[in-house]
Specification:
261 residues, 10-stranded antiparallel beta sheet, 3-stranded mixed beta sheet, 26% strand
């Protein structure tokens, strides 16, 4: 059985304390920029010099930090948070791709906590090659404010599939409906994708799925761009990049990280 309030399991977790914040208008919506220098200390973070076969810390994290576990999944704190309430949802077995059961668990936890689930693959900002998602106890409205258009994705009658339209600069699908239908539909999309990498955001009853082309769209965003940025919170490790960012550079970063619309 899932915990009623996942965040109640973590009495003390590291505080989310950005060194600075900015808000920008982007694509007719709003995004938040945060300078978080502590995130540069993450073990295994994606960068140009990352080795191809680093040690995997997932087993150690699961063994020493688990707050709750059941049915093959576990929750741990995130020691480098980018949200005020931030947990990690892990598969307890070594795997990379989420199945419908993992997605349904994460989506239901996000709904129960009125929050958000973020998921990246390797090649789209994941720092550890072991399936895990970010469970955040908050929502942002960036994606909710973007225009959509219907699309036939052959995912069944129980889900509504829409493509995020211009001015969003990359291919992005939104899938909505009951969780028991959305979870297998998203699993189907991820299984059928032709790109190695993806980013996924589940918030306010919709799953946003973005096929990925490159991990780091430098110079416009000089680090791995992931689901946090897609969600609407751009997390900068370096002050200079944080200060220089503008709507044009963020738009170009999304365009390069995704596929052409």
């Amino acid at each position: 059985m899932l915990p009623h309030d996942p965040f109640a399991l973590a009495a003390t977790t590291p505080a989310f304390e950005p060194a600075a914040r900015r808000v920008l208008e982007l694509h007719g919506s709003r995004v938040e920029l945060c300078w978080i220098p502590t995130r540069s200390r993450r073990a295994g973070r994606a960068h140009a010099a990352r080795p191809p076969f680093p040690p995997c810390r997932a087993e150690q994290i699961l063994d020493q930090e688990s707050l709750w576990s059941a049915d093959g999944v576990a929750l741990t704190p995130n020691i480098h948070p980018f949200a005020a309430r931030h947990l990690l949802l892990w598969s307890q077995t070594p795997r990379r791709e989420p199945d419908g059961a993992f997605l349904r668990c994460g989506f239901e936890m996000a709904e129960r906590s009125e929050g958000t689930l973020l998921l990246n693959s390797i090649g789209a900002a994941a720092s550890i090659p072991w399936l895990h998602g970010h469970l955040l106890g908050e929502k942002l409205d960036y994606l909710e404010r973007l225009p959509t258009e219907p699309v036939d994705a052959m995912l069944g009658p129980e889900v509504d599939v829409r493509r995020i339209g211009a001015p969003f600069p990359a291919f992005l699908l939104a899938v909505s409906g009951p969780i028991e239908a959305v979870a297998p539909a998203v699993e189907d999309l991820l299984r059928r994708r032709t790109t190695p990498a993806f980013s996924l955001v589940y918030t306010a009853g919709r799953a946003f799925v973005m096929p990925r082309s490159i991990e780091t769209p430098a110079p416009d965003f000089p680090q791995a761009l992931g689901s946090a940025e897609l969600w609407g919170r751009w997390c900068f490790e370096e002050e200079s990049a944080f200060a220089a960012a503008n709507p044009e550079s963020l738009d170009r970063a999304l365009r390069r990280a995704g596929l052409a619309t």
